[in-house]
Write a structure and sequence with these properties.
The complex is a heterotrimer of chains A (204), B (83) and C (91). Chain A has 204 residues and is mainly alpha-helical. Chain A contains eleven helices and four strands; from the N terminus they run αααααββααααββαα. The chains are: A mainly alpha (204), B mainly beta (83), C mainly alpha (91). Chains in contact: A-B, A-C, B-C. The interface between A and C is large, with 54 and 52 residues.
């Protein structure tokens, strides 16, 4: 399902090299003006990548699957529930988390049509497809078509809600616990959860 | 309620495809920074925001998926009572 | 504002390009742009809304030709210039 665009590749490569140079000059200028240091930048990147992980989202989901009380609190107040697991949603930027649950006859899909709003703290940096014109334009008008591109199919009787993140609320999908996982431990359940499942382009 | 028919020259978080559409309030988000004015340099601007639910048919007519809906987080200024 | 970034519902951009096992960033400069924006936002040099407006104000053809982080870089350069972030402040 992955599409390789051979033709624009060379020019994309050139413009990436140009961007790298522009970033270098900009950072140098900001450092010279005592606005920030290169070291601060490196530390910010390192700290972000260490804190913002899809594993955080998976932990939340696995806990909600095994603990009905946690599930209820999670759906009522995402930030407070995440804090119970020691996950700081505001580490990178202040956001409000709303978790939306899939269920029988109900599926949820997350998009940001205007830019690329995304629960970074729980999923890490967003994939390129999430930020693409193709996804942002189509998800709201043809969610089943989008799901099909991921090889994901939901029944005709399932109602899909698409959440367009237009303010500072970040959405996370709580997938249904797969059948036949009753004997799995919480850690084993965590391993089943995929990033795409938490965006809604996969079922788990 | 209904979203206002609008096409402002400045920044807004009301997507074009949701302008002038009938919807209903799904959740009250409380007071949030108001982007349209903050983008214009008024850093302290805030407004009440709501999660609004739109039926696909009310957004896309016959061209959307039957059933299903779209939710978006919209500010008070984008909304008006439905006639 | 009704500009090119306002994508919801438009036809003709598909199909999706889905990269398997995508890294968090494809180039080091992208990570730097990401962190630059965060540090400048956090220190109050501009707001997230001003940042978004600066991305959206790109001429449509440039917006569509640019990669995601190239758009960010354009917006940061614009705001750094407009806000006089590099101006030497009196001692």
């Amino acid at each position: 399902m992955s599409h390789v665009h051979e033709e624009p590749h060379a020019s994309a490569h050139e413009s990436s090299a140009g961007a790298a140079n522009r970033v270098k000059s900009l950072v140098a200028a900001l450092e010279a003006a005592s606005v920030l240091t290169e070291r601060q930048l490196d530390e910010a990147i390192e700290s972000f990548l260490a804190h913002a992980q899809p594993a955080n989202g998976a932990r939340i989901v696995a806990r909600a699957w095994v603990d009905p009380g946690f599930r209820e609190r999670l759906l009522a107040d995402g930030n407070a529930a995440a804090a119970e697991l020691g996950i700081d949603l505001a580490h990178w930027a202040p956001v409000r988390l709303r978790v939306v649950a899939n269920g029988p006859g109900r599926h949820n899909l997350i998009v940001c049509t205007l830019c690329s709003c995304y629960p970074l703290a729980l999923l890490g940096p967003s994939p390129t497809w999430y930020k693409s014109e193709a996804y942002r334009s189509q998800a709201v008008r043809d969610p089943r078509g989008i799901l099909a591109e991921f090889g994901t199919h939901v029944g005709a009787d399932v109602e899909i809600t698409v959440w367009d993140s237009t303010a500072e609320v970040r959405y996370l999908v709580l997938p249904e616990r797969p059948a036949g996982t009753e004997l799995l431990s919480e850690a084993e359940l965590e391993a089943l959860v995929t990033r795409n499942g938490l965006i809604g382009t996969a079922l788990v | 309620m209904r979203t206002r028919i609008a096409n402002p020259a400045g920044h807004t978080r009301l997507p074009r495809y949701l302008s002038g559409r009938a919807g209903r309030i799904d959740a009250v988000l409380g007071t949030l920074p108001y982007p349209d004015r903050r983008a214009a340099g008024i850093v302290s601007a805030v407004e009440t925001a709501y999660t609004v639910r739109f039926e696909n048919a009310d957004v896309w007519g016959p061209d959307g998926e039957p059933g299903g809906c779209i939710c978006a987080d919209l500010f008070e200024s984008y909304l008006e009572p439905r006639e | 504002m009704s500009r090119v970034h306002d994508m919801g519902g438009q036809h003709g951009f598909g199909p999706l390009a889905i990269e398997s096992d995508e890294p968090p960033f494809h180039h080091e400069w992208e990570a730097r742009v990401f962190a630059l924006n965060r540090l400048l936002l956090r220190s109050g040099r501009y707001t997230l809304d001003e940042f978004r407006a600066a991305v959206e104000a790109m001429p449509p053809a440039d917006y569509l030709a640019a990669s995601y982080y190239e758009r960010w870089l354009h917006a940061i350069e614009t705001l750094v210039r407009e806000k006089g972030v590099l101006d030497v402040r009196p001692g």
